[in-house]
Predict the structure.
Amino acid sequence: MKIVETTIFTIEPDDNCLNIINADYKYEYGLVLVQKRHNKFELSVNGTTLYPRLKINYPFVRWIDHKHFLIMNPRTKGEKHNLFIMNIEGEVMRSFYCGNAVQDIAVSKEGIWCSYFDEGVFGEGISTEGLVLFDHTGLPTFQYHSYLPDAPSIEDCYAICRGENTTLWLYPYTDFELIQVNPEKNSFIHCISNS
């Protein structure tokens, strides 16, 4: 295996007003990122700057396919929707509420995975599930605590990563066990640490 190093984005040295908030890069799609310049949020899609007409506050951004990406506010303050699916021209195609206190997000062909930190898990609504898979219309198709009552509890989901096929790996607090969930079978396996 050959490792190739490539620069995909640079900030000009004299541009001290630009901060990168979140980004996603896929070889086949390119780079999409949320940046803040002069206290205003911007989107950059493969070098084209877009100015969304959304109320966003330190959002996540993830590719869905080569023509669509999502932008999601992890904290909600009474908003009805906090996840927005957009086309590469910056138009909102659809939106939905994915819960409060989102820790991480991953996109797969099955939908959009959201994990939550403690304020969501111990809050109210969909966030109390700890981990949810939404289809691309916003319908929850898998809810961790409801569908896997015998699985280790999630009080804070530190990291998630797509696995093979429809599976997802997660690393939740408090036991810090590496867990793989399979939403098709409503099943899980976990790797127990020997430390």
In short: The first strand starts at residue 18 and ends at 26. The chain has a mean pLDDT of 92. The helical segments are 118-121, 144-147. The CA atoms of residues 58 and 131 lie 20 Å apart.
